[in-house]
């Protein structure tokens, strides 16, 4: 945020510059937004002020939103007060302030005083090192992973599918032999089935 403020409000005007690598364009002078953009911003700003006024931190009497939500969040608030973050909120607040101050000082040193070189041009030129990282991943461990997945697909997945088809075909071939078209063969099979059922019922009754 400090970098943005410095470059927008304290840096040199750049709206008339024409970089060699960019296409030609007309000169641009900063100006106020048109009404169609300005009026919604005014409405949003007013709503933001109303939202802030609902929970003023000056006293309990000005915390209207807190009182309104108390029946719903009172139990949750009791649990929050037992957490480590709540009990050490001032420590965390101090850490946040220190980190923010370090960021402000670093931004001033880089973009206002120019005592340090900015690092984001190099990072952005390399596209956050995304392409290089992706290439290393694909050509290194990614390559081994992809080869392993391909082997599993070819030997395990395809093997299971083809093996199931082979087993079904073999069983069907054996069962097909019993379909010989002779009535006496079918009668014999039915008789054997009846005997098996009778034996099962008899044994079940004895047990």
Automatic annotation (TrEMBL):
<feature type="domain" description="NADH:ubiquinone/plastoquinone oxidoreductase chloroplast chain 5 C-terminal">
    <location>
        <begin position="28"/>
        <end position="116"/>
    </location>
</feature>
<protein>
    <recommendedName>
        <fullName>NADH:ubiquinone/plastoquinone oxidoreductase chloroplast chain 5 C-terminal domain-containing protein</fullName>
    </recommendedName>
</protein>
<dbReference type="GO" id="GO:0008137">
    <property type="term" value="F:NADH dehydrogenase (ubiquinone) activity"/>
</dbReference>
<dbReference type="GO" id="GO:0003954">
    <property type="term" value="F:NADH dehydrogenase activity"/>
</dbReference>
<dbReference type="Pfam" id="PF01010">
    <property type="entry name" value="Proton_antipo_C"/>
</dbReference>
<keyword id="KW-0874">Quinone</keyword>
<keyword id="KW-1278">Translocase</keyword>
<dbReference type="GO" id="GO:0016020">
    <property type="term" value="C:membrane"/>
</dbReference>
<dbReference type="GO" id="GO:0048038">
    <property type="term" value="F:quinone binding"/>
</dbReference>
<dbReference type="InterPro" id="IPR003945">
    <property type="entry name" value="NU5C-like"/>
</dbReference>
<feature type="transmembrane region" description="Helical">
    <location>
        <begin position="185"/>
        <end position="203"/>
    </location>
</feature>
<feature type="transmembrane region" description="Helical">
    <location>
        <begin position="38"/>
        <end position="58"/>
    </location>
</feature>
<feature type="transmembrane region" description="Helical">
    <location>
        <begin position="90"/>
        <end position="112"/>
    </location>
</feature>
<keyword id="KW-0521">NADP</keyword>
<keyword id="KW-0812">Transmembrane</keyword>
<keyword id="KW-1133">Transmembrane helix</keyword>
<keyword id="KW-0472">Membrane</keyword>
<dbReference type="GO" id="GO:0015990">
    <property type="term" value="P:electron transport coupled proton transport"/>
</dbReference>
<keyword id="KW-0520">NAD</keyword>
<keyword id="KW-0618">Plastoquinone</keyword>
<dbReference type="InterPro" id="IPR002128">
    <property type="entry name" value="NADH_UbQ_OxRdtase_chlpt_su5_C"/>
</dbReference>
<comment type="similarity">
    <text>Belongs to the complex I subunit 5 family.</text>
</comment>
<dbReference type="GO" id="GO:0042773">
    <property type="term" value="P:ATP synthesis coupled electron transport"/>
</dbReference>
């Amino acid at each position: 945020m400090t970098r943005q403020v410095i470059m927008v409000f304290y840096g040199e005007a750049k709206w008339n510059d024409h970089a060699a690598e960019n296409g030609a364009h007309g000169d641009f002078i900063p100006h106020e937004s048109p009404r169609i953009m300005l009026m919604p911003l005014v409405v949003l700003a007013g709503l933001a002020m109303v939202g802030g006024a609902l929970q003023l931190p000056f006293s309990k009497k000005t915390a209207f939103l807190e009182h309104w939500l108390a029946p719903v969040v009172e139990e949750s608030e009791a649990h929050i007060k037992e957490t480590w973050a709540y009990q050490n909120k001032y420590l965390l607040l101090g850490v946040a302030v220190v980190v923010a101050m370090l960021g402000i000082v670093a931004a001033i040193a880089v973009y206002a005083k120019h005592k340090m070189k900015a690092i984001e041009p190099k990072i952005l030129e390399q596209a956050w090192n995304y392409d290089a990282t992706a290439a290393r991943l694909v050509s290194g461990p990614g390559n081994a992973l992809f080869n392993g997945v391909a082997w599993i697909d070819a030997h395990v997945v395809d093997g299971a599918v083809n093996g199931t088809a082979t087993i079904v075909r073999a069983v069907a071939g054996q069962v097909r032999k019993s379909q010989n078209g002779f009535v006496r063969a079918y009668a014999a099979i039915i008789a054997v089935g009846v005997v098996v059922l009778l034996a099962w019922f008899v044994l079940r009754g004895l047990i």
